[in-house]
Amino acid sequence: MSETTNELMKAIGGLAKNPNFYLMVGPRHGGQRNHHRGQARLMRLLDKYDGLSVGEIAEILDVRPSSITGLVDRLEENDLVDRMPDAADKRITLIKLTKKGHQFLQNKKDEADDLSEEVFAGLSQEEQETLLNLLKRVSKNLDDVDFGDYISKMVNDSIGRHFRFDDGDIHINL
Fold first, then answer.
1. With respect to CATH, is domain 34-121 assigned 3.40.120.10?
2. Residue 40: which of 30, 49, 48 has the closest Cα?
3. Cβ atoms within 10 A of the Cβ of 94, count?
4. For residue 106, which of 95, 94, 116, 97 has the smallest C-alpha distance?
5. d(CA 18, CA 30)
6. Cα(first)–Cα(last) distance of the chain, in Å?
7. Fewest CB atoms within 10 Å of the CB: 3, 55, 78, 115?
8. A GO molecular function for this record (predicted)?
9. Average pLDDT per run of 10 along the chain, which is 174 residues long?
10. What distance in Å separates the CA atoms of residue 30 and residue 75, rounded to the nearest whole number?
């Protein structure tokens, strides 16, 4: 590894360890502790496809319908979604975002936009585009790397510190 690639790995690792970076890109609670990731995911789905049944939501998100019912209950308690009967089939209840729900999502988007502008304020538009293209290429390289040998070596090195194998016997290193 060259000195430059070592420094790049350290810089990326430093970003990953920076608590502010984690707060920016890590799991978000929408600034409010009573909205967890599942609720945010459901709200974003309803923002895109408003008026879905619990079954449709469960299928799209690949979760049990009972899990969706609990999420909808909590969102409904906060006036972020409403349950409405389907006009075509009264046996089906559709879940729709309320005006407050749409506004909540817009506020979160605006906050994210403001934060990204602040984080990248020191870079010109051209530098931002260059950084974006470079990060996409690094991400693709990560997708293309076969980490199987690397992980095997790590596991074997770890096992070797704790166990010794000779003549078919396993000995524990204390």
1. no
2. 30
3. 19
4. 97
5. 20
6. 34
7. 3
8. DNA-binding transcription factor activity
9. 82 81 60 63 93 94 91 95 93 96 93 88 93 89 77 68 63 64
10. 13
What phi and psi, each to the nearest 5 degrees, are found at residue 82?
-125, 150
Copy the structure tokens of residue 8: 């790049």
| Residue 111 identity | E
Rounded Cα distance, 97 and 103, in Å: 10
At residue 42's C-alpha, the angle toward residues 89 and 32, to 5°, is: 135
Identify which of 166, 142, 105 has the alpha carbon closest to the alpha carbon of residue 9: 142
Burial 32-69 (b: 16+ CB within 10 A, else e): eeebeebbbebbebbeeeeebbbebbbeeeeeeeeebe
Secondary element (H or E) of residue 90: none
